[in-house]
């Protein structure tokens, strides 16, 4: 699947020996302090999107499942930057193993959105599967084992997320409650755009692997800097998959809100407050989404407990 890189094409002397079992199409050590310049820097977008998601989790009190998902994005981006910056085997594991276990976090977030947490057997599966893939991969050091194991998990994640979208995000004329996010409000746009970004970026990465030596390397040498950085397919894979993951997680937040809306309505009715309503807001010219949910929304069942705890604590403090 991966091209065998020719180290003689590097434009600078290797600052340290590379021990990774894969080496992508980008020239190595074009700068002395990074093994792969573009592939390292493009991971910053994944880290930034994950950090932004964590800020939204704190701002809107998303469920804990989404904290784990965005934390996984940050971990994957950091591990990938370390790997591409060093091309050592140890750093490669810090890139690929978070991808496996991070995808488990995505599957945890996507499945059974109407429940506080998925069934125990599902959670056990999400722990056992990546552990088994890791054991086989590390024992044999066959990159294909990781690639197949990860691809299967990514595909299942998209299927589970799509199922939630189809079930809980309905057109306005089929939605019986005003508090639900509908298709017309962009509820399904998040997932379709996210999957398109992820799959499109993967196609670019596969094409790079297929045509690295025959087409891409000669093309990069012909155009030179700075335009050659636009031909680094693995860098585009980082940008597209990171953005796609952020949108897919945001779609899961919408699904979670809609799936637990009845619980939200009952809670609000008891409190005599208006029914909760979520809103999808796009920033940066329609590129970056923000799912705005009510503070008392059951999107975060643990968040409601936290709010109640804060209220009780606040009352006690006032009494004291």
Structure description:
The chain is 65% helix and 3% strand. By secondary structure, it is mostly helical. It has a single domain (14-319), classed as Rhopdopsin 7-helix transmembrane proteins (Up-down Bundle), CATH 1.20.1070. The protein has a two-stranded antiparallel ribbon with strand order 1-2. A hairpin with a 4-residue loop joins strand 1 (279-283) and strand 2 (288-292). Helix 2 (43-60) packs antiparallel against helix 3 and helix 4 packs parallel to helix 6 (143-168). The longest helix has 35 residues, at 189-223. It is globular.
Q: What is the molecular shape?
A: globular
CATH architecture: Up-down Bundle
CATH topology: Rhopdopsin 7-helix transmembrane proteins
Order of helices and strands: HHHHHHHHHEEH
Subcellular location: Membrane
Cofactor: Zn(2+)
Transmembrane segments: 31-54, 66-85, 120-139, 145-169, 235-255
GO molecular function: hydrolase activity, acting on carbon-nitrogen (but not peptide) bonds, in linear amides; metal ion binding
Describe the secondary structure blueprint for this structure.
Blueprint lengths: L36 H5 L1 H18 L3 H23 L2 H22 L9 H21 L2 H26 L20 H35 L9 H27 L1 H11 L7 E5 L4 E5 L8 H19 L1
Antiparallel strand pairs: 1-2
GO biological process, one term: ceramide biosynthetic process
InterPro entries: ACER
GO molecular function: hydrolase activity, acting on carbon-nitrogen (but not peptide) bonds, in linear amides; metal ion binding
């Amino acid at each position: 699947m991966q091209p065998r890189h020719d180290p003689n094409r590097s434009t600078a002397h290797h600052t340290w020996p590379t021990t990774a079992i894969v080496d992508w199409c980008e020239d190595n050590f074009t700068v002395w302090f990074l093994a792969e310049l573009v592939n390292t820097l493009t991971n910053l977008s994944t880290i930034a999107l994950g950090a932004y998601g964590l800020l939204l989790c704190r701002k809107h009190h998303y469920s804990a499942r989404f904290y784990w998902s965005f934390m996984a994005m940050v971990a994957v981006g950091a591990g990938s930057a370390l790997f591409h910056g060093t091309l050592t085997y140890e750093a490669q594991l810090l890139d690929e193993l978070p991808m496996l276990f991070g995808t488990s976090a995505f599957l945890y977030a996507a499945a059974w959105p109407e429940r506080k947490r998925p069934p125990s057997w599902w959670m056990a599966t999400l722990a056992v599967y990546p552990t088994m893939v890791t054991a086989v991969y590390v024992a044999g050091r066959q990159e294909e084992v990781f690639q197949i194991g990860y691809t299967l998990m990514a595909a299942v994640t998209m299927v589970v997320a799509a199922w939630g979208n189809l079930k809980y995000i309905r057109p306005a004329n089929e939605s019986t409650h005003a508090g639900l996010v509908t298709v017309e409000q962009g509820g399904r746009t998040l997932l379709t755009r996210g999957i398109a970004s992820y799959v499109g970026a993967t196609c670019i990465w596969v094409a790079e692997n297929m045509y690295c030596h025959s087409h891409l390397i000669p093309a990069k040498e012909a155009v030179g800097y700075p335009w050659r950085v636009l031909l680094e397919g693995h860098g585009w894979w980082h940008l597209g998959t990171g953005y796609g993951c952020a949108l897919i997680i945001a779609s899961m937040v919408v699904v979670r809100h809609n799936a637990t809306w009845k619980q939200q309505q009952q809670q609000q009715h008891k409190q005599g407050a208006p029914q909760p309503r979520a809103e999808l807001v796009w920033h940066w010219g329609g590129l970056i989404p923000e799912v705005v949910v009510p503070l008392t929304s059951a999107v975060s069942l643990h968040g409601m407990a936290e709010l109640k705890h804060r209220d009780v604590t606040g009352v006690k403090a006032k009494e004291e």
